[in-house]
Design goal:
The protein has 306 residues and is of the alpha/beta class. It is 43% helix and 12% strand. It is built from 11 helices and 5 strands, in the order ααααααβββαβαβααα. α4 crosses α5, α5 packs across α6 and α7 runs parallel beside α8. The chain starts with a helix and ends in a 5-residue tail after the last helix.
Length: 306
């Protein structure tokens, strides 16, 4: 009987919750042929296994939440637990987090665009058309520019994001957002060997990205250029999404006295958190590093054609 109680406790949603992934206690008790009152009596016993288990689960959940700097909701915490071999339902994680008062930081209003159209006609195609997927790392990337407030003034960040792994493969920061900023970012990614020959780089139609100087840089790196339509943020949604995450999880929660403080903090976030440890819903709650390694592991295991 206790096995059934344990199963219900690990999987259940509260009776008043409409959950797509879990069944209410009342229904599971009926399906398993046990009484609802018996389940709750077992669950509240001071010496019950469920209280011991729940206490351990609470400690793990708190640890993972703190390790995320308070940014993880119950789905990513559930993925962390699963990666450690801890079996429990996502609804149980959400319930425990609610009881512990653990609430992920909330997004704030979005920004205005920095890369304004220069009013000129540029014959650059949209090779992406809102398809931000790629079959392999290095074949398709997106980029954009955002600003970071500091007590010294704005710090501008340009990024290059891989469409297969969602990793930030190249970036640059400066006190202005002129063309050398994005030039440095794309060369950063290419210099690390993270852009394949004939890869696509997609951006918005801002004057920096459509400049002759930047086009020459892409040509020298053997990268095909792609741009979205003017003023349509969805045409570069992957790049926009990263900036929203960066602002929500780091920038809006931090005051930077100098540009150098911001530069160091953002570099740490990109390399030590976002690329290495942050779980992405679009990647099945894996990290960019895990996806990168998984791809190359599959390539190594594939039979060589004779």
């Amino acid at each position: 009987m206790s096995d059934k109680f344990e199963f219900i406790d690990a999987q259940h949603a509260p009776d008043n919750t409409d959950s797509p992934t879990s069944l209410p206690v009342t229904r599971m008790c009926r399906l398993l042929g046990i009484s609802r009152s018996g389940f709750y009596e077992w669950r509240t016993r001071p010496t019950s296994a469920t209280l011991v288990r729940r206490s351990g689960l609470s400690r793990l959940i708190t640890s993972f939440f703190e390790a995320s700097d308070g940014t993880y909701g119950y789905r990513r915490i559930h993925a962390d637990l699963a990666a450690q071999g801890v079996r429990c339902g996502p609804e149980l994680v959400r319930q425990v987090m609610r009881e512990l008062g653990l609430r992920a930081c909330q997004p704030r209003p979005w920004r205005f665009s920095l890369t304004a159209d220069d009013g000129q006609v540029h014959d650059i195609p949209d090779l992406v058309r809102r398809d931000f997927t790629a079959e392999a790392p290095g074949r398709k990337a997106v980029g954009d520019i955002t600003y970071i407030p500091t007590d010294e003034g704005w710090l501008y960040l340009a990024t290059v994001i891989d469409c297969h792994t969602r990793a930030v493969t190249g970036w640059a920061m400066d006190d202005n957002y002129k063309t050398p900023l994005i030039d440095t970012a794309i060369r950063h990614a290419a210099g690390k060997g993270l852009l394949a020959d004939n890869a696509i780089f997609h951006s918005d139609r801002g004057s920096n990205y459509t400049s002759a100087t930047f086009a020459a840089t892409l040509t020298s790196l053997r990268i095909r250029q792609s741009v979205g339509r003017t003023g349509i943020c969805y045409d570069n949604a992957l790049a926009e999404s990263f900036f929203a995450t960066l602002k929500n999880e780091l920038v809006h929660r931090t005051r930077y006295p100098t540009r150098e403080h911001a530069r160091q903090d953002i570099a740490r976030y990109i390399e030590l958190r976002y690329n290495s440890r942050r779980r992405h819903s679009a990647l099945g709650y894996r990290t960019p590093r895990e996806v990168h390694h998984a791809y190359h592991a599959r390539q190594s295991a594939a039979p060589v054609a004779v």
